[in-house]
């Protein structure tokens, strides 16, 4: 998913980016990092970003520009971030669903930021 598609989705569905960070390097990317000319070309071609996005209609978890989780929301769900595991939980009166955010490598500061943005998003809906 490209940055332009993500920006369009956020505007259309009234959402917020909970977390955005550069993807972790693979072995080949770190190898090319040693070669200066190839590094610049490789960086321009292969820039990967990880996202955690919350909109009124869905939760998107994107790793290396690929959608890992796309969960549709009906509006009655309670969205919770669990910083201990780290996981993202969606609770309804009938069921509970959660998915792991370990691939996102969330730090303590980013965890606080995610909680803050979720609460701001929930307050803006009311």
Describe the secondary structure blueprint for this structure.
Blueprint: H1 3-13, E1 16-22, H2 27-32, H3 36-45, E2 49-54, E3 58-63, E4 66-72, E5 78-82, E6 87-91, E7 96-100, H4 108-125
Antiparallel strand pairs: 1-2, 2-3, 3-4, 5-6, 6-7
Question: Strand tally, please?
Answer: 7
The CATH architecture category equals Roll
Poorly predicted regions are none
Q: Gyration radius, to the nearest Å?
A: 16 Å
Give the class-level CATH name.
Mainly Beta
Tally of structural domains: 1
Instruction: Give the proportion of residues in helices.
Output: 25-40%
Number of DSSP helical runs: 4
Shape, per Cα inertia axes: elongated
Give the assembly state of these chains. single chain
CA-to-CA gap between the ends?
A: 30 Å
Overall mean confidence score, pLDDT: 82
Helix/strand-derived category reads alpha+beta
Strand count, sense and barrel status of the largest sheet are: 4 strands, antiparallel
Report the β-strand fraction as a percent range: 25-35%
